Amino acid sequence: MKCLHSLRKKIILWLLSIVTVTLGLFQAYLYLSLKTNLIQDLNNAADQKVSRLERDLNLPLWELDNGWINTIVDTEMRDEQVQAVYVYSSGTITSAQYRDNSGKKIKVSTDHLQGDFILRKGSIEHKGEKIGEVKIYLSKALMKQRLRDELYKAVLLTLVVSIMISISLEYMINILIIRPITKLLDVTRHISQGEYEYSSILSSEDEIGYLGQSIDEMRVKIVEREKELVISNYALEKANNSLEDKVDERTHELQEANQKLQELDKLKSMFIASMSHELRTPLNSIIGFAGVLLQGLSGPLNEKQIDQLHRVKSAGMHLLSLISDVIDISKVEAGRVTPFPEYFFLDELLKEAFNEIEIIAKQKELKLEIERIPVIEMFTDKKRLYQCILNYLSNAIKFTEKGKVVLGAGQEGDRIRIWVKDTGIGIAEKDKPRLFEAFERLETHLRVLPGGTGLGLYLTRKITETLLQGSVWLETKEGEGSVFGLLLPQKISIKDE
Amino acid sequence: MKLFMNGLILLFLFLPLYAEGQKQLRITLQANESIPIWIDKGEGEGLGCEIIHAISQEMGISTKIEFLPLKRLIADTANNDLGNPLFYMNNQSFAAIIPIAVTYSALFSYLPHVKKCQMHPCGEKHIGVLKGTIANTRALESFGQFEESYSHESLFKKLQKGRIDLVLELNLVGRYTIRSLFPNEADNFDIRVISETASPIAIMIDNSTPDALKIGHRYQEGLHRIIQNGKYRGILQKYYGKKAIPSDWYVKLSNFESLYTLAPLRDGQ
Q: How far does the CA of residue A47 sit from the closest CA of chain B (Å)?
């Protein structure tokens, strides 16, 4: 109800202010008009009086008839607006009267009047000869008194009208707005408390009446929807119970699957451990003894034996490499490998890789070049970076029949870009997404030529992203060559554990 | 001159109220105040009033004088002789005219202005007269320019101020006015009495008045009585002084008596 009182007060105050201001402005206009007219009237009266005195005093002043002059002055002084009249003849006062503060007319012999008056002077002439002059003072007191009276009337009228209007407005607003809204508020309050039996339909056919109808329609719909809601809630509760059963069932299944995965992970770890130890040991023996045989420490070998032993050693090396890659990938994926950063100069590392791979390039009669590398000091896992660069170089040499392989690097802000460019077979656009995945070896006419595990690029990407905190990139065009690259931070961040 | 001074002498009207069958004759006269001849204050003041009362007392007549307001008559000349001196003569028939005194007009001038030659050039004299006392000022334009005033006081104030050069006024009235207005300057005024302007002050009895002729005779008899018993001379001495009574006074009075007394005048004769 407080807000309604506030609304009523606001409306009444607004309307009252508008009415008061409008009436006030109108009354001010009337007052100013009246003031202007009264001043004009007073000036006109002064002009008329001095003209009349000039005319009427002509003969008496010529006749030097003081009684006559006094009679005229006395007659003029009957007008209460006239404060004083002075008649001069030959520079001296012939007749003069002024009105004192009490309104009493006093005959005087000197002109000493001062104050806020309207003064008019007239010259009295007889047959073209000036015989005297007259001065008349008109008081503004009556005018001011009338203006004050009018002002009081205007203020009083404005107040009375404003009060009458405010009372009327309050009554009308109460009947037309406040009471209907109060009823609607009661109904909405009951509705908010869940009591829907109160109707908000009003008898008036106006906006508030329509509002009441709308609220009542809303009340009916709320009742209907509440019924529907009860039904829906019942169905939902039922479904919820069923869902909980299903969630329990799925949770149980997930727990079982997780348990199986943990077992598999354990098996995988055992497998990797087995690969690491059990497979490497015999392979090292095979490779070692093949080398011993090839060195002729066990006796001379014919060419065919030598060739076969080379094949054995090569296959063993390949298998060892494959096992090493698999072990590396497993460790990286399992997060068991941590980077060992150190400070080093990149150009030295690249030259080292260049030197190591140069002999293979020469075997394929490929031109291996290294671009002018700026001196960049890096802080990263040097061994793993070296592994990645070798992977890229060996890959490039593998898939390049002729032309050249170029190794390059550059600095881009706090990042280092390293690339290996070849003039090899290039890679089709459709194959690019699969290139850095595990065991992916693309179909090429060179497939049979290079040996490989299909894990090199995958391993490179994993090392780059996981350990070196960088990314791999590729630019290639089928049949024209490829550029494989690394984008690495100059310094890797080390997590505190 | 006599012609235009008629208005001055006929100031006194007669309007008797005669009560038939009463022992004492009661007469009411009308006059215009003209100090010091007719004075409207106190009983019997003024030369004319005193003579009338002396006659009345002598003859046992109760005479009352009513004064007509001079200024009002001057302002509205439709029903009086002011501004139209022959009004009564032309519009009224009189049963009797009884001269009781003589008046003389005089020309008054203010000597300081005369000496300083501040007056208007000769031939253009501005002569002030009381309004209505001269019937036809145009006829007198050769004497100067006549300017009428509304009161004796105005006439002499204007003269003293230099607004007019001369005042033509009854000798007695002019002297009295000068003494009243300028008691310290009386000697500065030059007075030239014009003996030819002698005019009667008369009791004029309207033709419609019952027993007009009889009443006229009684007043005339009374006049003769007071002349005989010296009351008349005493009154004259009071106003003129013992040695200043005009020498031809009684001759003029006798002439006027012969001319008017009891001779009914008709049509302004």
A: 28
